[in-house]
Specification:
The complex is a heterodimer of chains A (about 325) and B (about 450).
Chain A lengths: L2 H31 L6 H12 L3 H18 L1 H10 L1 H23 L5 H30 L4 E2 L2 E2 L10 H22 L5 H32 L1 H4 L5 H22 L6 H20 L2 E3 L3 E2 H4 L3 H29 L12
Antiparallel strand pairs in A: 1-2, 3-4
Helix pairs in contact in A: 1-2, 1-3, 1-6, 1-7, 1-11, 1-13, 3-4, 3-13, 5-6, 6-7, 7-8, 7-11, 8-10, 10-11
Chain B lengths: L4 H40 L2 H35 L1 H34 L6 H30 L5 E3 L2 E3 L3 H5 L4 H29 L7 H33 L1 H8 L5 E2 L3 E3 L2 E3 L2 E3 L2 E3 L2 H7 L5 E2 L13 H32 L10 H29 L2 E3 L3 E2 H4 L6 H24 L3 H4 L10 H6 L1
Antiparallel strand pairs in B: 1-2, 3-8, 4-7, 5-6, 9-10
Helix pairs in contact in B: 1-2, 1-4, 1-6, 1-13, 2-3, 3-4, 4-6, 6-7, 6-11, 7-8, 7-10, 8-10, 10-11
The chains are: A mainly alpha (about 325), B mainly alpha (about 450).
């Protein structure tokens, strides 16, 4: 395996981590928006408590992805960001609005107008941002962006508003909703747990349908992606993902709550992994391979050397964080504040 | 003035940087205050120090959160606004950015443990948690500043036939400007934090607002401020000498020096336009001395290079004057406070700053931010028209896309809304220190018992 391929693997891993952690975080906002029924406030408070300690960390995966792109694949970073500047700017506005709104609600005075308005901003931005990131993934995969060398030829709206991109946007949103609800199941009790369990089941079914429908849509609208679907490795990855999804559904159905989060996370990692395999060898479908986009060898190697050294600090710290806060059972009571 | 892509992109990048730079110094400096306060509580057994740290915690959380998202904006905008620059430079200078990613990650993790760790861990363990936050936040700053330094003094590559070759990311990282920029830029965070926290407490005390342990908070913040401001001025002198050596044209713009001359005068104030710096107070030969430690050293003037290779001397010179002026004013206020305290400490144990000193302390918060922002203006305006000094012009690094102005307007609106909300949230904070037990996530027994 060449260092460039290994680095592309790191970028894919960053997407996976962002989907598994950041996705659940966005999903928290989605369910805050969709909170209904007699336990509406309890649902929102439990979600907020779950997100609180980890939300910043969840979003650092995005920064790690961006940084990996611009260190190791500067041409891809430049071309993708220039080509897709409109949806990326929109996602960025969403990230800022969401992060600031969460902080105001969480650290500010609970019963203020500011807190109520912040909840609205937070919820809507939590829907818009992952949907827009899904559009970007769809556009990167769909093969509608034309490039000459590192110059972008196609227009500002190319690739991210087609049927396949919209499908990817929907899948992005469903991934978030599924993960958030699934992660909440073992951390809640009683009726509140039942609320999240039902939501997780609904979201997992919707995600299953959406990912299945995406295949014929890709065949019609995204040749670049569809042409890789007969690759044995991609088919195998998709089959494993489908099994993981079914296992997650089984665990939800039979109330084996402990198994729900790892299976849900593995399913999402599978979806991202299958997508990544189908992208090979392109970073931008039909336009830019990871070899063409790579920086000089020494930069790639330095990055790969720095990575495990950084992880020596990072992994135990992350473990400490999640270990400290995941043992709590979240009740929908007022936060002692 | 036409708002073309270049101007829109520069305006949006500038806006995003200025907004971000309001939060970063506090994200670096406040952890140091937490470290000191909790450390003093352990050492002296005085629980008021711990209450102070506790009262600051939600503020740290809020400011860090807004700082983190505004930093994400920058990591995107490098690609969205400057794709040609990143294509050129990403592989050379990406290394400090990726290391910064790790440092920032560590900071985020331990800050979360700190904020939510009240009542979950022993006082000693909680103090220990502040150490990685202090270290990783300072290291983050050093890495990011190293990337900025490279844009000023690019090293670690060669250009052959328009292609970048022979890249050495480590040489690029430890370029000629990184050390003085890193020291000056990181110390600035402690200066800003010290004076702005002091400003808040001085204001609360003067207006007799209810705030717990305000005198102690003022004392602690002023200790950090008083240690960091003289160091910062020494570091500034070092930075200026390095700039004189490495980027003489930038130095000339900072000082409003048009003609190349021996024994150049230092100009205080003044307006450099049309080839002449008017209305400045000139001190003979001092500029030569400050730049080169020789009263008769030759100082290169702006006229030595063609107009299209010069920065905007008016913006650079005025920003530099604001930075230096504010810096010395802060030194004076710091000295005034401690001198007043030292004279009264025995006679009046409950001594509070008087009217004029209170006003000066309140002003010092604004002055410290003015100095910090103006300092960045000096670096950034002074580097123009280059994005990679001497190699790539800013106009060559910009995106070819249209409509950037639309996003500039949208981000301006969003930042106005966030700033307004932040002011509303922080103005309510005087009621925070009054009730130090009220903390987010502090769902522990102690907090519930009190509440």
């Amino acid at each position: 395996m060449s260092p460039e391929l290994a680095a592309a693997g790191v970028a894919l891993a960053a997407v996976m981590m962002y989907a598994m952690f950041g996705g659940a975080d966005f999903g928290g906002g989605v369910w805050s928006l969709l909170a209904w029924g007699p336990r509406k406030q309890e649902q929102r408070l439990a979600l907020e408590k779950a997100i609180g300690p980890v939300w910043e960390t969840n979003h650092v995966w995005l920064i790690l992805l961006v940084v990996t792109l611009f260190v190791v694949f500067p041409t891809a970073y430049a071309v993708i960001f220039e080509a897709l500047y409109v949806p990326l700017f929109i996602a960025l506005l969403g990230i800022v609005a969401r992060g600031a709104a969460f902080a105001f609600r969480h650290y500010g005075q609970r019963e203020s107008r500011l807190a109520r308005q912040s909840l609205q901003w937070f919820s809507w931005a939590s829907v818009a941002t992952p949907f827009t990131f899904g559009l970007v993934i769809g556009a990167v995969t769909g093969g509608h962006i034309e490039v000459d060398g590192s110059r972008v030829l196609s227009g500002p709206f190319a690739g991210w508003l087609g049927p396949f991109a919209l499908m990817c946007g929907l899948i992005g949103l469903l991934i978030c909703a599924f993960l958030a609800a699934a992660y909440m199941v073992p951390r809640t009790e009683g009726a509140l747990q039942e609320d999240f369990r039902r939501r997780a089941i609904a979201a997992s079914l919707a995600l299953g349908v959406a990912t299945t429908v995406a295949i014929p849509v890709a065949a019609a609208d995204a040749d670049a992606f569809a042409s890789h679907l007969d690759d044995g490795r991609v088919v195998a990855a998709m089959a494993v993902t489908a099994l993981l999804g079914l296992a997650a559904l089984w665990a939800l159905w039979t109330r084996r709550t402990r198994f729900v989060p790892p299976l849900a996370a593995a399913t999402v990692a599978g979806v991202v992994g299958a997508w990544g395999l189908a992208q090979h060898p392109y970073l931008l479908a039909n336009a830019l391979t990871y070899r063409e986009a790579a920086a000089e060898r020494i930069t790639v190697v330095s990055f790969l050397v720095a990575l495990p050294i950084g992880s020596l600090i990072l992994v135990p710290s992350l473990w400490l964080l999640y270990w400290t806060f995941s043992r709590d059972t979240l009740r929908g009571e007022e936060i002692a504040h | 003035m036409e708002f073309d892509s270049l101007l829109s992109a520069r305006a949006l990048m500038g806006l995003s940087l200025v907004f971000h730079t309001f939060f970063t110094p506090l994200g670096i400096g406040l952890p140091l205050l937490l470290f000191i306060a909790e450390g003093l509580a352990l050492k002296t057994g005085d629980q008021r120090y711990r209450q102070l740290a506790r009262a600051w915690t939600p503020v740290v959380g809020l400011l860090f959160a807004v700082g983190a998202v505004s930093g994400t904006v920058l990591s995107f905008e490098l690609g969205l606004l400057w794709p040609r620059f990143m294509e050129y430079a990403g592989g050379i200078i990406g290394m400090p950015f990726s290391l910064e990613g790790f440092a920032f990650f560590t900071e985020a993790i331990f800050l979360a443990i700190y904020i939510y760790g009240w009542n979950r861990m022993s006082a000693f363990a909680h103090w220990l948690v502040t150490i990685p936050i202090v270290i990783s936040s300072a290291i983050s700053a050093v890495f990011v500043i190293s990337a900025n330094a490279w844009m000023n003094t690019p090293e670690g590559f060669r250009v052959v036939g328009g292609q970048v070759v022979d890249v050495n990311p480590w040489d690029a990282m430890f370029n000629a400007a990184w050390l003085h920029e890193a020291i000056h830029g990181t110390l600035a965070s402690y200066v800003v934090t010290g004076f702005s926290v002091a400003a808040v407490y001085a204001w609360l005390l003067w207006r007799k607002k209810p705030a717990a342990n305000a005198r102690l908070g003022l004392q602690l913040a002023m200790a950090v401020a008083a240690v960091s401001i003289p160091l910062q001025i020494v570091a500034g002198d070092l930075a200026a000498r390095r700039v004189a050596e490495l980027q003489p044209v930038k130095f000339a713009a900072m000082e409003g020096q048009y003609e190349t001359e021996r024994g150049a005068p230092l100009r205080i104030g003044g307006i450099p336009v049309d080839g002449e710096t008017r209305f400045a107070i000139e001190i003979p030969k001092l500029l030569s001395y400050l730049g080169y430690r020789d009263f008769n050293a030759e100082v290169v003037g702006l006229n030595a290079v063609p107009k299209e290779d010069r920065p905007n001397e008016l913006l650079t010179h005025l920003s530099f004057q604001v930075m230096v002026g504010a810096g010395f004013a802060l030194l004076f206020i710091g000295g005034w406070y401690w001198w007043a305290w030292w004279r009264r400490r025995r006679a009046e144990p409950g001594w509070l700053p008087g009217r004029w000193l209170s006003w000066a302390l309140a002003a010092s918060g604004f002055l410290s931010f003015a100095a910090l922002q103006a300092g960045w203006f000096v670096t950034e305006f002074g580097r123009q028209p280059w994005v990679v000094y001497g190699y790539l012009r800013t106009s060559e690094g910009v995106t070819e896309r249209d409509g950037i102005l639309v996003f500039f307007v949208l981000f301006t609106l969003l930042y106005v809304v966030i700033s307004a909300a932040l002011i509303v949230a922080l103005l309510k904070w005087p009621h925070g220190p009054k009730q130090p037990e009220r903390l987010p996530g502090a769902a522990g027994k102690e907090a519930e018992g009190v509440a």
